[in-house]
């Protein structure tokens, strides 16, 4: 069989870079294969994707070496339009992908590549939106959608193209866990039913492995480091080395003193057979799974019965009351469109509640300006491209300090320190445009951290981050919390919540439907299904293997992780 994509000793250097970003890439992808590309942030995954879909060289110029064939042709000999007949893409930054005035038009636009008759197109748009549960939004403007809803619409667009190759750059980043599962399922259905070739770039190991993958390609520093099947890669233990987090149940097995290379079929927690090891696992969870006591905290932010609607008939935040204490990390969980970003904007003052009250350290802040609130409450939005305004990296981080009249020497010192913490120091003299998405995300966080607010709202802080940066960053957040900074973490990553949050607040349809420890919230079936959350692989594994107490097994894992943090 002839490969549909063939890289031979391929290299690429962006025109404004001195070193090549891709080096000596040799990879054949065959029709009907499902490939998962992973690797550290900045390793060149999106660049590789851009070479396949033609954004390189059409949008991003530079020099290539070696050869690349896509669908039997060299991309440079085609127009980007011709190439889009072979390769359909979902980009990392969806905001840049919308062209139509309404959701329906947008999906239709993708289909126009197929030049379908109008009537047929209408039917197809409806079918595609229905598949991703977004039909109700067909007339809405893409700019009125929540982050996850935009992601659903992009998926609908790509799923309905005729392209033979579908390329997904972080398709799960903004999706709630249930939608993430649905997305992986849809991708898999299309892969099997229509024989499409699928290429997925993702950091979320467990989420990708919910469906079978043929090969994993691990990239590092612009080259291909390892290629293998999921089982091969998981049992070889190389994931961490390439910026990926191993599945939690695999870590739990190691904590319990079990060697992974002896275990077969590691990629599916429900099928993994550990019959002979049950006693070891039970003993470990009993020993390590003691539930810790909650600490008492000084109240920082208090919201009482906030209500807000973009239009008056339909409030999207209803009667929401919550407290965040100094030094507390609170996870705000909930389905796409539940109202999480809207609630954050009420807290930061970008939006004004129709009713309700907000106090900060006991003081009513309703009359505070956005600027004054910003000194106490930092807000990092989901999409970094919406936050970044400056051309150079250190200017971006220093801007807030400059506006506040801080002396240049102090600005430089604080900026450098924050850049170090955020793993961006090496790039301090770079233009923002040369950063990868994950790097930009860290930049937008750095620009807030430098202002030293007392409460920080982080919307999907780790989306698009590789594991090493995720861990470094979250450990840093943890340290700040020990110094008294409060955090509201909006996340669809249940593991992030589980490991780092003291407490979870669950929002559904604008209302707070649960407030408890994360482990407790995630084991409450009613809450998880309403808010489209997900049982962790730890409890799936514990149940499938009939361990004595799945809850204790989960707690044992959390305790071990926290112990690990305390040692570092
Ligand atoms: N438009 C650009 N101009 C110049 N250099 C770029 C550009 N985009 C990316 N780069 C360079 O290529 C490197 C790899 O970026 P790329 O987006 O391919 O990484 P990635 O592996 O997809 O990272 P992430 O997981 O953070 O999205 C960056 O560190 C940067 O040096
Ligand atoms: N500017 C706007 N105009 C009108 N409606 C909006 C606007 N922004 C958001 N909405 C609607 O308000 C609801 C809540 O959106 P919000 O962005 O707060 O959700 P979210 O919980 O943050 O979702 P996600 O997890 O997908 O980011 C959604 O139904 C959305 O369509």
From TrEMBL:
Keyword line: ATP-binding, Cell membrane, Membrane, Nucleotide-binding, Repeat, Translocase, Transport
Biological function: Probably part of an ABC transporter complex. Responsible for energy coupling to the transport system.
UniProt cross-references to Gene3D superfamilies, sorted A to Z: P-loop containing nucleotide triphosphate hydrolases
Subcellular location: Cell membrane
Name of the protein in its database record: Duplicated ATPase component MtsB
Membrane topology: Peripheral membrane protein
Key word Cell inner membrane present: no
InterPro entries in alphabetical order: AAA+_ATPase, ABC_Co_transporter, ABC_transporter-like_ATP-bd, ABC_transporter-like_CS, ABC_transpr_CbiO/EcfA_su, ECF_ABC_transporter_ATP-bd, P-loop_NTPase
Ranges in a coiled coil: none
GO molecular function list: ATP binding; ATP hydrolysis activity; ATPase-coupled transmembrane transporter activity; cobalt ion transmembrane transporter activity
Chain segments annotated as transmembrane: none
Organism from which the protein derives: Paenibacillus pini JCM 16418
Annotated GO CC locations: ATP-binding cassette (ABC) transporter complex
Domain ABC transporter: 5-246, 301-534
Family: Belongs to the ABC transporter superfamily.
